[in-house]
Amino acid sequence: MTDLYQSQRAMRQMRHQAMQRGVVAILDVGSSKIACLVLRFDGTGRLSEDNSIGSLAGQSGFRVVGAATTRSRGVKFGEVSAMQETERAIRTALQAAQKMAEIRVDHVIACFSGANPRSYGLNAQIELEGQVVTENEISRVLAACDVPDYGAGREVLHAQPVNFALDHRSGLADPRGQLGQSLSVDMHMLTVDGDAIQNLAYCIKRCDLELAGIASSSYVTGISSLVEDEQELGAACIDLGGGSTGISIFMKKHMIYTDSVRMGGDHITADISKGLGVPMTNAERFKTFYGGVHATGMDDREMIDIGGDTGDWEHDRRTVSRAELIGIMRPRVEEILEEVRARLDAAGFEHLPSQQIVLTGGGSQIQGLDALASRILGQQVRLGRPLRVHGLPQAATGPGFAGAVGLCLFAANPQDEWWDFEIPVDRYPARSFKRAVKWFRDNW
Q: What string of DSSP letters covers 107-167?
């Protein structure tokens, strides 16, 4: 724990340095594409005057000055599987973004999906030494949280205080400066496979870059795709990526749960490739232009020329009806949504006051997906696009860029985490803790 604690603090320092220099790169390392944005800041070092715990300010103060994407290589299920290929892809995207921005970048903030995320709810209560809640008291209450025994080879990626209570007043975002006798905190802790983080960090280091922050894709996608009311009242963000599907639940403007399903758009493409006997690139094209999940009578008559260049005339002039293509795609889409439903049920999502679900990510553009999702997930479902940020090119405003845009907001104004407070390192108990998210509904 202490190693990670130190490295997270070191990354926070790097971020401050990058802010002072006024430029930082954003890197969304996905299974199907690697997106890189270059941000230029106005030199204040922090975006907003609002310095409260967990505040996520608006996006004034920075603009996107460079943007590039490249096809991802060496990334499977959102994790680095071939170091050299991923390094080459990152360099390609970074160089193109730097060229557009006409500026060299040394610091990068990255996000990734996969890595078997696991959510824990932690809480603690202390008696105040004085009458007033100080920074030191916040450190003490965070240190008093019982850290679960989350297993060898796992690392903490996020540890965020999501709710404070002072005496009998709950739902406080920032109790500093307030009077009371006892202070309690609810915290959300996210752990991931340590190897996945280390491989990504090593890959970025090999590209001669300094890592100034790292975040879960599910988290940053939720920040950019959920509107303010949804983040406040309770909503789930489902990020349909290429290699995995991320799930995050937000409440009171904080992420309180995250998980991922190791299936995504690439699996649908692979099914089409196998089912029609065509290369993956052709299958991807058919999925994008003709794909869907709901067949009508018209689709039996709409024929798609699937062609080929094998030299075998019979083989190369094949056609398939759109209904057949939909018949190949739908079972896999249903399987992904059923898995998502199981994860939401396990999280106790039905107990939230609002159960809005927002679909985003490149895979969310499949025609008819929102209707099928609301049937399987049984909630209000909408398709989400990321917030608009200054300077973002039109080509990067679609749902496939929700992670990259969310990472811009995270870079500009990160929520407070455990390591932002001076917690004595020897205060890390490791006791077993039942994995559950019921704590938030008991406390709010």
A: EEEEEE--S--EEEEEEEEEE-SSSB--HHHHHHHHHTS-B----TTEEEEEEEEEEEEET
Q: Do residues 100 and 38 lie in contact, with contact meaning Cβ atoms separated by under 8 Å?
A: yes
CB neighbour burial string for 117-136, b if at least 16 within 10 angstroms, e if fewer:
bbbbbbbbeeebeeeebeee
Mean pLDDT across the chain, nearest whole number? 85
pLDDT above 60: residue 427: no
| Token code pair at residue 135 | 């920074």
Rg (CA), the chain: 23
Instruction: Flag whether pLDDT at 398 surpasses 60.
Output: yes
Residue 260 zone, left/alpha/beta (φ > 0; ψ -120 to 50; rest): beta
The residue among 264, 222, 437 whose CA lies nearest residue 345 is 437
User: 251: how many CB neighbours lie within 10 A of its CB?
Assistant: 24
Q: How confident is the model over 263-284, as a mean pLDDT?
A: 93
Residue 439 clears pLDDT 50, i.e. is over it: no
Question: How confident is the model over 148-198, as pLDDT tens digits?
Answer: 888 888 888 898 999 999 998 888 888 999 999 999 999 999 999 888 888
Name the 3-class secondary structure at 287.
Answer: helix
CA–CA separation, 388 and 405 (whole Å): 8
Asked whether 230 and 356 are in contact (CB, 8 A), the reply is: yes
Ranges 54-58, 167-171, 246-250, 376-380, most confident: 246-250
Which residue, 239, 255, 247, is CA-closest to 163? 255
Q: Measured between alpha carbons, how far is 246 from 224 in angstroms, rounded to an integer?
A: 14
Distance CA 257, CA 431 (A): 20
